Structure formats: C-alpha cells, structure tokens
Amino acid sequence: MATHWWQEVVVYQVYPRSFYDTDGDGIGDLQGIIAKLDYLAELGIGAIWLSPVYQSPNDDNGYDISDYQNIMAEFGTMADMDQLIQEAKRRNIEIVMDLVVNHTSDEHPWFVDAKKGKESPYRDYYVWSDPAADGGVPNGLISNFSGSAWTLDEASGQYYLHLFSKKQPDLNWTNPQLRQEVYDMMNYWIDKGIGGFRMDVIDLIGKIPEKEIIGNGPKLHDYLQEMNRATFGDKELLTVGETWGATPENAKLYSDPKRHELSMVFQFEHVMLDQEPGKTKWDLAPLPLNELKVALARWQTELGTEGWNSLFWENHDLPRVISRWGNDQEYREASGKFFAIILHLMKGTPYIYQGEEIGMTNAPVTDIGQVADIESINLYHERLAQGYSKEAILESINRKGRDNARTPMQWDDSENAGFTTGTPWLAVNPNYREINVAQALADENSLFYTYQKLIQLRKDHPLVVWGDFELLDTAPELFAYVRRYEGQTWLVVGNFSNENLALDLPGYQVVETLIHNYPGEIGELTNRQLAPWEAMVVAVT
Ligand code: TEU
Hints:
TIM Barrel; Oligo-1,6-glucosidase, domain 2; 20 strands
C-alpha cells in the first residue's frame, strides 16, 4: 500500500487573525506567522492549516471571500504569502490553504455582477429562486447563522440562497463554468507550492436547494472526482474535507484512495455528543463518556485500508477542550496532557489548534457586547426573540461559542499577551499572565513538551502511524486502548475524570514507559490507582 507524507505528520491550525500581529493594528498577519515558524518547527509539526487569508470584508472572519487570488490587506500582501510558503518549506512545513468554495462574499465581483439581473453572465454562479406562492421565502431552508437561508434581492424580485450569513451567497456547483473557475483558482495556489487544501463545508456543494437537500447531495462525489482530476490528482497534496455529516461509511467515499477524491475528512460525531439529541450545539447536555469512547473507536476500526482518519479536539469553531471536557482549573495541565496523549496515539493525522499546545482555555463573556462572532450574535438575538433569558443564552455562548478559541494567542505575560502592541481585535483571555508560550517553553514539564514528545514519538515509531487499534472494555472513565504493529504492542491508558480511579489490567507486562503525565516510570498495571487525568503510553508484552 502506498504511503503518503500527510499520514505521518501532525498539522497545526493557524487562525491568522489571532496568531501574531507585527504591525500593531491589533490583527494578526502573515509576517507574524513567519516570525513564529521557528516556534512551530520546535514543536515538530509538518504542516500548517491556514484559515482564510484571502481578501474579505470579514463578515465571517475571512470565510466570506471577495477575491481568492489576493491577500486580505490587514494580513499583508501576496509577497508575504509567497515568503511564508518558502520559509515554511525551509523548515519542512507545508502550507495547507483553506478552500472556501461553497459560497463567496456578496462583495465578490461574481456576485456583484450576478445581482445586476437575470442576464448577468454570473447570475447562474449562485442559487436564485422565485418567491413561494404566498410571496414569501421559497422554502424552509435555515441558515447556519440563524433565520431563513433565503434573502430577497429587491431589484430582481428573486431570493438568493445563503446557508451561512446573508453576506455569504452560496455558489451553484451545477454550473460547469463556475466549477472550472474554482479549479483554475486552485491550480493558481498549487503552482505557488502549497501543500494542500482544507475544504470548508465541502459536503454541501452537491446541494439541491429546491428539494431541501443540503449535505451529501447526489452529485457531491462526482464533483470531487472531477476536482481531483482537474487540480491536485497527480500531486502529493494533503486534502481534508470538512464534513459535518460524515459517517464511517461515507468517509470511505471521500477518502478511499481507489476513488481519487480526498486524503481524509474531518468527522464531527464526537463533537456533537454533548448536546440534546436532535437539537443544536447550544442546547447543552453532559458528555456521555462511554459514547465518546465508542464513537472514536468506531472511526479507528471501520475505515480499515479504505480511508484515513483525521484526529482533533479543537478548531476555530469549537470551544477549548480543557474547558469543555477537562478541568481548566486545578487539573488544567494534567487534563490537557490527557487529551493530547489520548488523541495523538490514535490512528490518523492529528491536528493541533493554535494555543491548544499551551493549554489555552475558554474566554468568559458577561455581555453580548464582548462577542465578535456572527454566529453567536445572531443566535443571541434569535433566542431573545424566542423568549430565552439572557443568562441562558450567554451560558450557551460561554460553553460553545466560537470566540472561545479565537482570542489572541498568548505568547508571554506582557500587555496583550505579547500578541500585539495595539488594541487586539478581540480581548485577550485574562489568564494570559499564567498561561502563555514563554512560560510553557521555560517549564520542562509543560503541556508544550508533551505535545512535542508525542509528535516525536510519531516520527520515531511506525506503530503510532500504522498500528492496529483495539479499544479495551473498561469503566467509562477509563480510556484504554491498544495499538499493535509488527509484533510490538503499546497500551494507552487515561483517567477521564477528576477523581482517583482503579486501574486493573492484568495480562500486560510493562516493557517501557514512553510517555506519562505524572512523574515516574510505570511498573504494574494491576492493583493501581490512577490520579485525576493521569495518562500514559507504555510498551507491553
Ligand atoms: O464551518 C462550518 C459550520 O457548519 C460551522 O459554522 C458550524 O455551524 C459551527 O461553527 C459549529 O457548530 C465552516 C468554517 O469552519 C466556519 O468558520 C465558517 O463560519 C463556515 O464554514 C462558513 O464558511
């Protein structure tokens, strides 16, 4: 079986707006990423997933693109971008671009022209519909950012579709010319020497709006195969689809090498467990530990050789995992290491979201005025109108809002966490004096070095990349699994709780302690207590 570089690396996601600001405007920039490449090289990552840096009016922080072949002025210039690609390559780091082609900005020239009327050559690049018989919206499709997914274009009397904000009109992928424009744009970036694409909500491009079919439309995989042939198919690129609706079954459709589509997908099954069934992420429910383990394990075993996993706890849309499922007070470091160890020893390509490697936590808000994210702001107004209390809505936002992970990167304990000399676009988490990169680098027991060690283990031991996976049947709070490869066996064990936990795994003799988040080597695996969030990787016979 052919192997690929993107199976062996760890990817680091940079959210440029919040990473590092070099010109004092309070917004991170490309020179800021270049300045921190040595830091990322020290961590050991092999690729950066770069959230969008293209020209954008920033209704959704760059996920609303008005020019795919220009750089957002606040972030820098195309020369900076070329420099970033080259400087990263010098350190064996590939740049994976965010490909946002389910929609554009309403300020993209295509949409500006399309709005001129039905005769516009770009009209059909977007999705238009006449009003329903009663004169209202064409159907019941709902935007991910609240309200109808249809907005009336007064001039023509037709509605246009936007599955996200009004300023993110959906592209019409049934139009072959539009598809060719997207492929040409992708080739422009490939020619610059990028390492791949992270494909934003790619499972929506096969939609049939008139039938209210949104995800996993019938033509989706035809389009991806066509895209593969027209762009990256003959290149060694990392391509990862963001697919909220992925099951192990359809993940194989995307990532089975024989089908020539993508390298892998992001699946979100585990991310949706702590919400009321059938409702939204804002409708909070406790995390069922056993279901989490079972969900993750199913993905580990079901893809076999017909697909490839990606592994993540966090990204720019999700809360910080330590606050969400760990303990961001007393056991911040220990629980952070627990999540790192449990995830990075699984089979698949791991992703680290900026700040995760130093254990950044959710940033509390007490008033909607402190929130910048369009998703949370729209939710707030929608739920107020529906009669929810302010307190209840703010609780949901504090727990699940996207700004939690978007506060500026905490570099040191100087003002604004060393992120900017100006006023940060979003307030820095007040805990930056204790939690920051300088502190983490100075402490040899910090979470940073756990991540560094995990990345090194992956480089040194093919077992981590290629080994088989078996979940052990244990108490819900005990997360235990085995990896096996060419006669070697590793055991990964972690205590998913704030309490001591009995450990009794007879039948294994410890040969070597590879990683442990509490002091000391591991001897016996029987009649032992695990401390809160204690986690370890041991080679066994
Ligand atoms: O996210 C897709 C998406 O569905 C999320 O917006 C999701 O609804 C929510 O954040 C979590 O429940 C992608 C990008 O990652 C996100 O940042 C963009 O806002 C969105 O697409 C539109 O481009």
